[in-house]
Amino acid sequence: MPKTLEKRAEEQFNRRDALRVLFLFDPDEDHREAIRAWDHPEIECIEATQPGLSTVYRIEKQGTDANVLLYTPSPRPPAADLGSYPLADLLIANAELTVDEAAELADELDLHPEQRRLVQQYYDSDLRYKNRRRFLGGTLSRERLTEDRLKRGLAAYYLDLFGSAAPSSTNHVIAGVLIRACDTEAFTDFREACTARDLDDWLGQQMAQRFALDRVGFSHEMVKTASQRLKYNLLTQPLDTVSADDPYRTTLRIEQTSVLTRMRDLVNEWEAHSRLSPSYQQVLNALAPEVDEARLMQAYGSEASFGYLTPALRRERLRQAVALLPEQPETSQQTVQSLRSSDDQAAAEAAHVVWHMAAFYRHVNAHASLDVGALDAFVDTYTTDLHRCDTHYREAVRIMQTIRREQSRYRSVIDAAYESFLHAYADRFVQAMNIPWQQKLEAEAASQPIRGAIRIPSLDQFYARHVASVEKKTAVIISDGLRYEVAAALNNALQSTRRKHTTLNAMLAPIPSITSLGKACLLPHETLTLNPNATGIHVDGNPANSTRQRSKLLKARRSDAGVFRFEDLNGLTTDEGRARMKEHSLVYIYHDRIDRYGDKADTETDTPTAAYETISELQGFIQKLNNWNVRRVLITADHGFLYDDSVPDAMQEPFPSTTRADGTEGYVVRRSRCVVAEAIAADHGYQFEVPAVSPLTDAWYAVVPRAVNRYNLSGAGKRYAHGGASLQELVVPVLEVETSRTDIAEKVDVRLLTSKHTILSGVLKAEFFQMQSISNTVRPRTIQVGLYDNQGSLISNSEELELDVVAPEDPGQRTHTCLLELMPQADDLNACRLCAYDVDDPLNAIIDQPFTIQRHFGSDF
After folding, report:
1. Helices H, strands E: what count in the chain?
2. Distance between CA atoms of 817 and 427, rounded to whole angstroms?
3. pLDDT of 691-735, one tens digit each?
């Protein structure tokens, strides 16, 4: 570090024994602070603001042997004026202290002559300041100091983007220049600072090299031109051909591979640097609006594989996907598929909504009619296929609620289609399927009990079928309102979990499909009765309406059984959970999230989110049970539910007239979707004798409102409903999850979809197909993909792909893509190989495909 004034003065006095006074002229007062802090035991510091006889007196007062530093905050008098200078005799007889801090810094760093010149050139403007030397760090060393690195570091300092340390790459500085150019005032300040230090020529040279620009002066206009070239070439580089309708092909297109490689390196380093914000996409959108994405889409089509999607491209892709609904849902899904993984969260959310709407239409459109025939056909069609309509509706509604809450900029693109989708769900699916289903259910129940007319077992057979004869430790999770489609989504989530083997079946809930009766059906029993006075359920004559009562009933059949609430177990540690489970061979666990939110008018709109959270919550809890040595888990429910985010007034009905046996008005059960009474007015809704549609033996009648309407129940919500006879309310899941100690599943297979085996412009968009959906027998695989020369050396970036998609019904979801960019070491090659390796076996390629490399030749500049 530079010497202190005390040290310099001491050295001067030590070298010259006769020296008594050392003058320090400081017209700019650069040393004022050092003088104020002067501290030397043998050298006195005297300030001579107005040199004269008083100054001579002060010096003589120190004594003849004293050493004095005479500080004068004024310039040294020129030789011509020395005769009139009051201290001329002292100055001539003594010496002047001169400070060459630049030379001292160069000495300290042990620099060679060319490096010393750089220090001298930039010392006064920058290197004299400690904060800038700290910022430059290792650049100021004999091993690393070059003109290029010093200019890069100083330019980075004035960009004021990199914190306390200079970046290691010129690409970082160029990215910073583009970021600063978004603010005209900040860029002007930066440019002025660079011009004052002769950095502008260096910056202009770097910009010209990276963007194939003419060597013109560094300016905001130059940066805008560079941004236009960068934006255009990033967008179009992955495209196989150049369209004659491309309006920018003659002015902005770059053919030189080396320049394209430098552009891609710039972007990669930009993305990797934590301090370079905003992103390159946002910056290019701001600096290069002249590159109009709409014109590029007209030239290449909206589905072209552009290098990235700008906000305009995202909006247009969403618009086109929406325009394809409802007639072309498959194409609509393909159009937004890549947007679903966009870094732009708002665009990704909008794409998810469109994708789910399209998936809904795809399933509905596949059926000419939803009156599919007999009762068994309805259940089979719903459980194998059409339950997914409920899933896609639920997810679309959940995400759209977020979009509307956050006032997403893409909302206007999808709003109208979403409103149509809500009506289509109600009209084309829920009512179109449930009206004929309920009509046939009513007709069949009029002639015989339903359990004898349909293959699906009734819910009151659950214990006998799934629990009674099983000796393995079992946990039964009863999730209130867990309808079949939510359990199917949970099943899909569990498919990708190793060593878990799942089986999803269905049972038919009773009518009325209410919580108290459904939960009673799941207990071991001989008889079930409904108390008409307290609307409570009795199992074998004993009440079964609380967790404590159900525990008593279960233990009467299985003495070592346990009954818990989900909340009482979920927070336990592994040791606590094992200790709790060790006491029981069978546990019933009551979980309530969906019904807790749905059954209240002020929270019913949270039902889609509650269902979504239930899936992840139960998935995690199943793993906890496995950790507690419970290897068999059954997940079921007391009933399902209907949810419609837009229930018109026309779907609201008054309650029918009901009477008791004595003729007085009254009812046994009254819900928004059903009424149970001893007598009900004729010709109202769908009517059932209760013993025909439930295990109850009482001579009562149940009535359900027409279609999927709701009764006007005071205080109740109208979106979420259960109690009636729709498939969504009656088809209850039984999901069995068994965890084995070994993994017998095979890894998923993969193949290359890319059909053109030619690489243009140094970039390959490689597309792969995951051959199977992840399931109990097929487990995920991670592959590493790259381009290699014939000697096996990597000549591109390497990308890792996770092949872990669970989508048995939609192979389109199982495609995976990555961009592979040739590195400079591939410049002399005309062929290479695309290889993919399982990360667990990096020596044996599972894909090895030759590719031809084609280039456009020409000078770089």
Report:
1. 32, 33
2. 38
3. 999 999 988 999 999 999 999 998 889 999 999 999 999 999 999
- Residue 113 confidence (pLDDT): 87
CA distance 404 to 386: 27
Q: What does the block give as tokens for 736?
A: 């069995």
- Mean pLDDT computed over every residue of the chain: 92
CA dist., res. 483 & res. 611, Å (int)? 9
DSSP class of 40: -
Query: Distance between CA atoms of 161 and 227, rounded to whole angstroms?
Result: 19
Cα 818 to the chain's mean position, in Å?
18
Q: How many CB atoms lie within 10 A of CB 51?
A: 19
pLDDT tens for 517-565 read 999 999 999 999 987 765 589 999 999 999 999 999 999 999 999 999 9
CA separation, residue 71 to residues 27, 40, 101, 141 (Å): 10, 14, 18, 34
User: Does residue 859 register a pLDDT over 50?
Assistant: no
Q: How far apart are CA 44 and CA 54, in angstroms?
A: 16
* Confidence at residue 760, expressed as pLDDT on a 0 to 100 scale: 77
**Rounded CA separation 516/530 (Å):** 9
Buried b (16+ CB within 10 A) or exposed e, 547-581: eebbeebbeeebeebbbbebeebeeeeeeebeebb
Angle between helices 329-336 and 345-365 (to 10 degrees): 160
- Nearest Cα to 586, choosing from 619, 560, 564? 560
Which of 91-95, 121-125, 327-331, 386-390 is predicted with the least confidence, judged by mean pLDDT? Answer: 91-95
The CB density around residue 647, as the number of other CB atoms within 10 Å, is: 20
Measured distance CA(210)–CA(542) in Å, rounded: 83
